[in-house]
Amino acid sequence: MTNNRMPTMPARRWFGLRPGPPHVERRRRRPRGRAVIALAITILAAWTVVAIAAPLLAPHDPLQQTGSYYTPPSSAHWLGTDQLGRDILSRIIYGARLSLPLAVVIVALALLLGGGIGLIAGYLGKWADESLMRLTDLVFAFPPIILAMVVTAAFGPSARNAVLALVLVSWPTYARVVRSAVLSIRGSDFLHASRLLGVGPWRALARDVLPNSVGPSVVLASLELGNAVLMLASLSFLGLGPRPPAPEWGAMIAAGASDLSKWWVSIVPGIAILTTVLAFNLLGDAVRDWLDPTAARGQASADRRRDQRRAGPPPARTQPVTDSEPQNAPLLDIRGLSVTLPGPAGPLPVIKNLDLQVGAGEFVGIAGESGSGKSLTALTLLNLLPPGARVDGSIRFEGTELTELDAHGWQRVRGSGIAMVFQESATALHPMLTVGLQLTEHLRATQAMSKAAARTRAVELLDQVRIPQPRRALRAYPHQFSGGMRQRIAIASALACDPRLLIADEPTTALDVTVQAGILALLDELRRDNDLSVLFITHDLGVLSSLTQRAYVFYAGRVMESGATAEVLTQPAHPYTGALLGARPHGLSTQQTLRAIPGTPVVPGQEPPGCPFEPRCGYARDECRTGPPPVEAIGADRTLACVVAPDLAAAR
Amino acid sequence: MTGPRLQADGPGDLVAAELETDAEVTAQPARDRSSHRLLRFIARKVAITAGLLFGVTILTFLLVQAVPGDPTATNLSETAQKDPSIVAAYRAKWGLDKPLPVQYATYLNNLVHGDLGTSQSTGNPVLHDLGTYIPATMELAIPAMVLSLLISLGLGMWAAVRKDRAADHTIRAGALIGLSTPSFWLAIVVLYVFFYMLDLAPNGGRLSTRYTPPDQVTGMYTIDTLLQGRPIAFQDALWHLMLPVLVLTALTVSILIRFVRSAMLEVLDQQYVRAAYAKGLPRRIVLRRHVLRAGLVQVVTVGGLAFASLLSGTVLIEQIYSWPGIGQYAFSASLNLDLPAIMGVGLFVALVYTVVNLLIDILYGIIDPRIRVS
């Protein structure tokens, strides 16, 4: 399927499989992001040049009062003159000499003062921390402008007092940031270790703690520069800043506020402030994104969309493995499914040429390691892949071709046709909505049930999954239940609209073994009672054996082997399956070593050219490196993707 | 063979064993315990408030005392200052001749009795002044806050859902420009455009001069004119509200949008949003019920702080629109070194922040049921 009629869901980031090299990668900057930073730096550089070269650039003396008051812009005075006849353009140019350096000084001093206090509070702890934090709260409680006003008015308006006032007002933010940085590392092991090694407290402070606080401080400082300019302008607008006739931009705006007809006096200085603060803010954002990656929002989305257009033609489909007779058509029939996800260096194939069938009432398992593509298969079946994903191939469910559905079509399939139970019930249930609401909302939304009917059905469902006192449970919240109960509720929710196929994505991995047994037994019972088909995803071969009738073994987005579960697990045909079975610790004595599979799982985008398992396989031959082995049928309802295995089987 | 085996007599045993422990969890909530907890919670908050207010009074007191400026010098004319008897009388009247601790103690004592002193510049009791100026600011802050919340929730959510697309970039660019704009300049520009150029808005003030201000019930002209049954005056008061509220809203929206957007982005990543779609829910229900509520906690925090700062920091807007609010009062008090007035404003501001924080905490409990237990 290469058309774009398969809209992906608006959920903006994926989780689980993260393609790309395992080391920390430098985020590639979008061209637009780079342009924005370049713009910010250009503006700031321009203003810096203006400030430095003011005497050369300004056409007039900023303090000189010509006789012509309040003249509009003209050839003699490009921006007109103010109420004392001074050239506004020159005053704006010289104003840069005030605003920029003063803002830098304010931020630097506030950083020193606040950072110092935060450092002391965080490092010394206890009473020092407590009292300093109360002081911080106190200063925080005052709106900055009023506090600054009071201080400057009290000490007399001047540039120095304005700076002092603003430092006084802004240090708490730095104190808090530095303190939390210090606290985060204070409890850390390597600090303990260095103290044990005899490093004195003050040296430890300077050597270990201080560098850790530099990052957040720099981020904060760069974000605060713009704010400093604004606050300074506000103070001088009120007449509390640098004393006249100093050409401060805020004061210039004040001069024109009284007479609106002289618009040039107020408007242009404001533009100067706006551009400067905007440039500072853009730069601050860029610094923050660069130094604090967790705060950065993915810039890769645009890349994904670009890469989507560049992706090549879909891979060739293999021949269908089993002939499907029309009257025995399986409930779910996946043929040649290939999924690529957008990655930093291009599209990454995560599922390759998958063939999979689930019949009515069957319990089919998918086994594989993390990163093998099992969960992504589940998400593809519900169209919940991240934006930019490409899906090729065919997915037929109850006769409908899912890859051709539009958004409404998918809404009809989800919940009522195919339903899903996720791995972590704690995160899959909304923590702020009652269980009752989460069980009834889709009943009412998709099946137009009345509130009462939906509640009755919800109680029924909770009974089915063995939740005690179901009526009370409806009013409760998910966090009030244990993990096992929550997962039952999730199952109940998935079954609410009577789906034909239930996908269970490792539903018991997060639970302990006895609880797990209960959930699995429940699933089996539900399958039989409701004529449900279950596609069970797991990495636990034991679970696979106890419940599933057929199984697929996944590796690197491909099926390595499939067939009746009992056969696959007792007589594995593929070396990978054999290695998985051999690697289990069950039944080993202490004398035996654990036979782990050498190597690491394949990273999408870095697959070897041949069989994906070849680097780790003990039986690899030259022909394993030429190309991925095709999936072949080796018996009734048994498939295998290995060129070596048949010879191995013959040799046994 | 490995793996758990099914009980021959059915899974009921295992399930029942698990259920016994869980039955207690879903048992009747202990209502009496939770109300006791709530009382303790409120008592603790009140104690912290009292401490904070106490600290504020000390801070303002020390601050004004520490400055080289002398209230006497700022409030008496030049000639009056030359006359020692007048100066002495002035100082005696305002208690400036007593030692500092005594002055402070007197102030605290009066405070407890509800007397915030008398403003040195207006001559009125500070409490009375606050009673006039605070509602005026409230009349600006409340509509601005309501509008800001509605607009930023809508736009922020939209930007989050359309992340990295044109709408998102436009909204974020707009917010960034709004953040970088000086508030007083925006106020002047808006006044220039709508009053001077287009003649659509008044030139500041709360009411046109041809109307008499309504009798004070709430202190907010819009409400009071309605209560008095004067719809035309009400319309005029509303008309005067337009521009300052517009400017305040624009500035507050710029701040809030970024927080709303990032809160929503975080929520959109959550598994429960994906699970909600997996149930077949249409998008508008998922966004409105699942995403919005989860992101609301963060929005409430920022919104509360924005409201507190709106109530206390509008001095620049009030200056330009000649709006006699608490900001103006604080400004003239600062210029005159009017200690009682400054302290009154400080107390009010601290009170606002504490009440807002309390409300935020209560709202948390309403929005997120997990917090109610702790």
- How far apart lie the N and C ends of chain B? 45 Å
Most extensive interface, chain pair and sizes: A-B, 118 and 101 residues
Q: Averaged pLDDT of chain B, please?
A: 80
User: What is the share of helical residues of chain A?
Assistant: 40-55%
Q: Indicate the mean pLDDT of chain A.
A: 81
Structural class of chain A: alpha/beta
- The helix fraction of chain B, in percent, is over 70%
Distance between the termini of chain A: 43 Å
- Residue share in β-strands of chain B: under 5%
> Can you list the strand order of the major beta sheet of chain A?
6-7-8-3-9-10-12-11
Record field, number of beta strands of chain A: 12
Oligomer: heterodimer
Dominant shape of chain A: elongated
Separate helix tally of chain A: 23
Number of strands of chain B: 0
**Poorly predicted runs of 5 or more residues of chain B:** 1-32
**How can the largest sheet of chain B be summarized?**
none
Q: How much strand of chain A? A: 5-15%
The Cα radius of gyration of chain B reads: 28 Å
Q: What is the N-to-C succession of helices and strands of chain B? A: HHHHHHHHHHHHHHHHH
Description:
- The complex is a heterodimer of chains A (652) and B (374).
- Chain A has 652 residues and is of the alpha/beta class.
- Chain A is built from 23 helices and 12 strands.
- Chain A has helices spanning 31-52, 54-57, 88-124, 126-141, 144-155, 159-186, 189-196, 201-237, 249-257, 263-291, 300-310, 374-381, 407-413, 425-428, 435-447, 451-464, 470-475, 483-495, 513-530, 541-547, 565-570, 575-582, 645-651, and strands at residues 332-343, 346-358, 363-367, 390-397, 400-401, 418-421, 501-505, 533-538, 550-555, 558-564, 632-635, 638-640.
- Chain A has an 8-stranded mixed sheet, with helices on both faces. In chain A, strands 2-1-4-5 form a 4-stranded antiparallel sheet.
- In chain A, strand 1 (332-343) and strand 2 (346-358) form a beta hairpin.
- The longest helix of chain A has 37 residues, at 88-124.
- Chain A is elongated, with a radius of gyration of 34 Å.
- The two termini of chain A are 43 Å apart.
- The model of chain A is unreliable at 1-29 and 295-326 (pLDDT under 50).
- By secondary structure, chain B is an all-alpha fold.
- Chain B is 76% helix and 0% strand.
- Chain B has 17 helices and no strands.
- Chain B starts with 11 loop residues before the first helix and ends with a helix.
- The interface between A and B is large, with 118 and 101 residues.
